[in-house]
Amino acid sequence: MKSILNLSKLSCIVCLFFANINTGKAQYDAMFTQYMFNEMFINPAYAGSKDAMAISLLHRQQWVNFPGRPITTTASIHGPVLGKKMGIGLSFLNEKIGTLNRNLVYLNYSYRVKIGKTGTLAFGLMGGIHNQVNKLSTVKTTDDNDVQFTQNTPSVITPNFGAGIYYSNPKFYAGISVPRLVDDNVSFTSTGGVLKTTKISPSSFHYYLVLGGIIELNDNLKLKPQAMVKAVQNAPIEFDVNVNALIKNLIWAGVGYRSGSDIVGILGVQINPQLNFTYSYDYGLTKIQKYSVGSHEIALGYVFAYKGKKIVSPRYF
C-alpha cells in the first residue's frame, strides 16, 4: 500500500477492538448499563410482560472523546395479544464501532403461562437479521486516492435466532436466555470479496441471567435491586449489579458496578406512571478512562393503557 495511514486513528481503532474482546470470546453483543430498559433485545420471553403495549428507546455513547468508540442506539415495541396468553414485539439496534456499522432487527414472540395468582412464566423465541458494512472511506489517509480506502465494503446480511425464559410477578422477575444462537462471522478479502460463516456453535453461545425485584420500604421510598450475569464457554463470567431507589414515585437514583470495568451512577424521573426518563454515567476502571470522559446513556420508556384502563402505578419491570 503506497499511502501511510493516520497512525493515531488506526491505533485507536485497534485498541478499541482489543478492549472489547475477552480472552477466548468474541463480543458481538452490544454493552448497556441500563439493560433493564433493553430486555427485549436480551430475552424474547420479555415480550408482553408489561401487560400493555410498551415502547423503549436507548442511546449509548461509550468512551466519549475516544476515536472510533462504540455508539449504540436501540428501540423496541412489544405488547400482549390473545388475552395476554402471548406476547409479540419488534426490536432494532444500530451500532458503530470504528469503521464498522451494523444494524440488527428482530421479531420477538412469547407464550405466557399463569403461575399462581400473580406470577407469569413466559417462553420466547426471536428471529431476525444482521446487516453490516465497514465504512473504510471514513478512514483518513495521507493519499486521498488510496484504493484500499476509497470505497466501503459490501453490505452483508446474515440471519440469527434466539430463545429465552422469563418469570415475573409484581415483586420479582428472573430470566435466562441465549439471544444469538448463530455464530455469524463476516470478513472481507483484499479484493473486496466476502467470507461469510453462519453456523450454530454451542461453544459460542452467550448466556444471560437477569433477575431483580422491588422492595417497598415505605410509601415514599422503594428499592429496585437488579443483576445481570453473562457467561460463555472458555471465558470469565461477567456481571452487572445495581440498586436504584424510587423516591416519592418521582425520582430514580442509583449506583452500579460492572465487573472489572466500570462504576455507574443512574439518575431519572418517573414523569408519570406511564412515562420515565433515565440517564446513566459510567466511570471506567480500565486504562481507557485516561483517554475518555466516561460513557453516557439515556433511556426513555412509555407504557400505553388499553381500552381506557388506567395504569395506577409505575411499571417497575
Give me the secondary-structure topology.
Layout: H1 7-19, H2 39-42, E1 54-61, E2 71-81, E3 86-97, E4 100-115, E5 119-134, E6 156-169, E7 172-178, E8 182-188, E9 194-200, E10 207-213, E11 215-218, E12 221-231, E13 238-247, E14 251-258, E15 262-272, E16 275-284, E17 295-303
Antiparallel strand pairs: 1-2, 1-17, 2-3, 3-4, 4-5, 5-6, 6-7, 7-10, 8-9, 10-12, 11-12, 12-13, 13-14, 14-15, 15-16, 16-17
Distance between the termini: 54 Å
Q: Helix- and strand-based class?
A: mainly beta
Instruction: Assign the CATH topology.
Output: Porin
Name the CATH homologous superfamily.
Answer: monomeric porin ompg
CATH top level class name: Mainly Beta
Classify the helix fraction into a percent range.
under 10%
Overall pLDDT confidence: 84
Number of strands: 17
Strand order of the largest sheet: 1-2-3-4-5-6-7-10-12-13-14-15-16-17
Any idea what the radius of gyration is?
Answer: 21 Å
Structure commentary:
The protein is mainly β and 317 residues long. It has one domain: Porin. The protein has helices at residues 7-19, 39-42; strands spanning 54-61, 71-81, 86-97, 100-115, 119-134, 156-169, 172-178, 182-188, 194-200, 207-213, 215-218, 221-231, 238-247, 251-258, 262-272, 275-284, 295-303. The strands form two sheets. It has a 14-stranded antiparallel β-barrel with strand order 1-2-3-4-5-6-7-10-12-13-14-15-16-17. Strands 8-9 form a two-stranded antiparallel ribbon. The longest helix has 13 residues, at 7-19. The protein is globular. The N and C termini lie far apart (54 Å).
